[in-house]
Amino acid sequence: MSDTVESLLGDLLEWVGKHERPYDEVLDAWRTSCPRLPVWEEATDRGFVRHFRKDRDMMIGLTDAGREFLARRH
Prior knowledge:
Layout: H1 3-18, E1 21-22, H2 23-30, H3 39-45, E2 49-54, E3 57-62, H4 64-73
Antiparallel strand pairs: 1-3, 2-3
Helix pairs in contact: 1-3, 1-4
């Protein structure tokens, strides 16, 4: 994995880690069609984020694995 993707992955997890975010907001900000910057896809493939319902909204939050990734980064 490139250093750029690893760095952006950390940025994504820090952003989501501040507070859970609506799914649509996360995809608007982080989904890309560039095969060299698969940040959102990498976060989901590694199990760093979780999807859940809150009221009627689909939300995104961090998993334990995502929090551990952030802890290793600092």
